[in-house]
């Protein structure tokens, strides 16, 4: 929550100051930015998680609400005249309207804090899904490497065998070619060592899975 960003848009400076001051009294306050409607543009909400709209010039409501409909930010409007803004409720369902009545400030802080908590929960879920997809891709790649290991080992064995045969007959090749064949031989050995590490890692992972499964079954039987 400490990294959440809130934009308060209002042409009533007292409203904006009151909301900011009340929120800063909370234990965990987000980063708050204040702005008036004359500086609002189509991308104003893009860098914030929550936009709170306070009293504005009447001609600015439609423009701000319409641009918020294409933004990922949550939107709350505190209305002085709830009846005057009632037609906006059906036209802009993505905006939550709170009437400016008794205890409106406490209601706003509670609703806004809950909105930020939900936004954070969505962000965490999206991060978890992204990490899961990355891990799945890594697992797929790992399985492919293990499946191709015999073919790679066979190819490397052939390369090493042919390189050994050429190196056993130094009189048939030039010194420069011999150095190149020696380099091929050395690199093939390194690749074989890498494939052996894959094999060792796969064996360790399988052993770990069996141990974890055995522990789980032991706990289940104890219950």
Q: What's a quick, concise take on this entry?
A:
This protein is α/β, with parallel strands linked by helices and 223 residues long. It contains five helices and five strands.
What does this structure look like?
- The protein has helices spanning 13-24, 61-68, 86-91, 104-167, 175-222, and strands at residues 5-9, 31-35, 50-53, 74-79, 95-99.
- It is of the alpha/beta class.
- The protein has a five-stranded parallel sheet, covered by helices on one side.
- Strand 4, helix 3 and strand 5 form a beta-alpha-beta unit.
- The protein is elongated, with a radius of gyration of 33 Å.
Content of β-strand: 5-15%
- The overall number of domains is 2
Structural class: alpha/beta
What are the secondary-structure elements, in order, as H or E? EHEEHEHEHH
Compute the number of strand runs: 5
**CATH first level of the largest domain:** Alpha Beta
Trace the largest sheet across and list its strands.
Answer: 2-1-3-4-5
Write the layout of secondary structure elements.
Layout: E1 5-9, H1 13-24, E2 31-35, E3 50-53, H2 61-68, E4 74-79, H3 86-91, E5 95-99, H4 104-167, H5 175-222
Parallel strand pairs: 1-2, 1-3, 3-4, 4-5
Helix pairs in contact: 1-4, 4-5
List keywords for this structure.
223 residues; alpha/beta; Rossmann fold; 2 domains; 5-stranded parallel beta sheet; elongated
């Amino acid at each position: 929550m400490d990294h959440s960003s809130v934009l308060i848009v209002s042409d009533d400076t007292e409203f904006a100051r009151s909301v900011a001051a009340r929120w800063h009294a909370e234990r965990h306050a987000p980063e708050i930015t204040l702005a008036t409607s004359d500086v609002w543009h189509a991308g104003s909400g893009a860098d914030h998680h929550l936009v709170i709209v306070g009293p504005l010039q009447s001609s600015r409501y439609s423009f701000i609400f319409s641009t918020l409909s294409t933004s990922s930010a949550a939107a709350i409007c505190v209305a002085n005249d709830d009846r005057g803004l009632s037609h906006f409720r059906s036209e802009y369902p993505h905006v939550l309207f709170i009437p400016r009545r008794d205890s409106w400030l406490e209601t706003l802080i509670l609703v806004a804090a809950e909105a930020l908590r939900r936004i954070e929960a969505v962000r965490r879920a999206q991060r978890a899904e992204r990490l899961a997809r990355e891990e799945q891709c890594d697992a797929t790649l790992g399985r492919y490497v293990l499946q191709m290991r015999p073919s790679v080992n066979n190819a490397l064995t052939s390369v090493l065998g042919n390189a050994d045969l050429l190196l056993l007959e130094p009189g048939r090749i030039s010194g420069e070619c011999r150095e190149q064949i020696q380099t091929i031989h050395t690199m093939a050995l390194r690749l074989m060592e890498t494939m052996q590490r894959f094999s060792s890692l796969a064996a360790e992972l399988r052993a770990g899975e069996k141990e974890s499964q055995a522990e789980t079954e032991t706990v289940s039987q104890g219950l």
